[in-house]
Automatic annotation (TrEMBL):
InterPro entries: Aminoacid_DH-like_N_sf, NAD(P)-bd_dom_sf, THF_DH/CycHdrlase, THF_DH/CycHdrlase_cat_dom, THF_DH/CycHdrlase_CS, THF_DH/CycHdrlase_NAD-bd_dom. GO terms for cellular component: cytosol. This is Bifunctional protein FolD. NADP(+) binds at G165, R166, S167, I231. It comes from the Bacteria. GO terms for molecular function: methenyltetrahydrofolate cyclohydrolase activity; methylenetetrahydrofolate dehydrogenase (NADP+) activity.
Length: 290
């Protein structure tokens, strides 16, 4: 048996073409979707992510507003910019690229974004709405994972799902979405005892750890749907390039389906950011949000 490869690059391309049609329709009504992106400092990975997000935005017929700040910027300046963007009618989504430098209180920055424009879904009001099963914006990475799982056609009801990682950005919202989809969910993390005993039970295994090739073949139940969220840059002596949290070549023969890195969850994250921006613009255009 060899796993179905869940091609996030292809699915994302398909979705982005659909988004362009919707964005162009909105533009005809005078509401071209707009995404404001705030990047503080010069973290190379963040710069790449932001560049990719801006490019995808333009290709999907949306406008991006780019706000780079130096690493030593005073938090008050960034908060002031967010306040302006909250009121700017051309901006339907505001994204602050994380992580922020140490002078920032991340929670304070996320709380300053108007929840109706919080397309990352990290504002406490949006986290709460997600938890209650009535989300305003679903965080992009777990949202993308749910789309990839839907591609398998597998009914998630009653399935054992194991998420490795409990971050606010990936692990926790991922667990919540799987729970709402009817899975029995276990969330594992660095304090989990006998991790393999948990992962081997998983019909759906999501790895969001940040450790290259951490998930090995012996941790995977035959036929499991394996989702690799990790993006790790390998050192030059290991050939460079990107690799996930899953040992792809070893797990592929066992899994029922698996996402590659790159080309799996990464492109879906960007697609779902566009989806959220578009949804936000549609709400403003319809007047359901003012
Ligand atoms: P965090 O570092 O915030 O979280 C990592 C999680 O993994 C923590 O909950 C941690 O546990 C857990 N963990 C660490 N070591 C172990 C271990 N030995 N056993 C079990 N659990 C462990 O990372 P993020 O959630 O932000 O990101 C995870 C990965 O996903 C990274 O590689 C990141 O680059 C990637 N990523 C990819 C995206 C995409 O679009 N594909 C988007 C966002 C992130 P504890 O809480 O106990 O410390």
């Amino acid at each position: 048996m060899t796993a179905q490869i869940l091609d996030g690059a292809a699915l994302s391309k398909r979705l982005r073409a659909e988004f362009k049609v919707r964005a162009d329709e909105l533009a005809l009504q005078g509401h071209r979707p707009g995404l404001a992106v705030i990047l503080v400092g010069e973290n190379p990975a963040s710069q790449v992510y932001v560049r990719n997000k801006i490019k995808a935005c333009h290709e999907a017929g949306m406008i991006s507003f780019d706000f780079p700040f130096p690493a030593d910027v005073a938090p008050a300046i960034v908060l002031q910019k967010i306040a302006e963007l909250n009121h700017d009618p051309a901006v339907h989504g505001i994204l602050v690229q994380l992580p922020l430098p140490p002078q920032f209180d991340e929670a304070e920055v996320l709380a300053a974004i108007r929840p109706e424009k919080d397309v990352d879904g990290f504002h406490a009001a949006n986290v709460g709405a997600l938890m209650q099963g009535d989300p305003r914006f679903i965080p992009c990475t777990p949202y993308g994972v749910m789309k990839l799982l839907a591609e398998t056609g597998v009914d998630l009801n009653g399935k054992e799902a194991v998420v490795i990682g409990r971050s606010n950005i990936v692990g926790k919202p991922m667990a919540m979405l799987l729970l709402h989809a009817g899975c029995t969910v276990t969330v594992c993390h660095s304090r989990t005892k006998d991790l393999n005993a948990h992962t081997r039970r998983a019909d759906i295994l999501v790895a969001a750890i940040g450790k290259p090739k951490f998930v090995t073949a012996d941790m995977v139940k035959p036929g499991a749907l394996v989702i690799d969220v990790g993006i790790n840059r390998l050192p030059a002596e290991a050939g460079g390039g990107l690799c996930g949290d899953v040992d792809f070549e070893a797990v592929k023969p066992i899994a029922g389906a698996i996402t590659p890195v790159p080309g799996g969850v990464g492109p879906m994250t960007i697609a779902m950011l566009l989806a959220n921006t578009l949804t936000s613009a549609e709400r403003f255009a319809e007047g359901t949000v003012k």
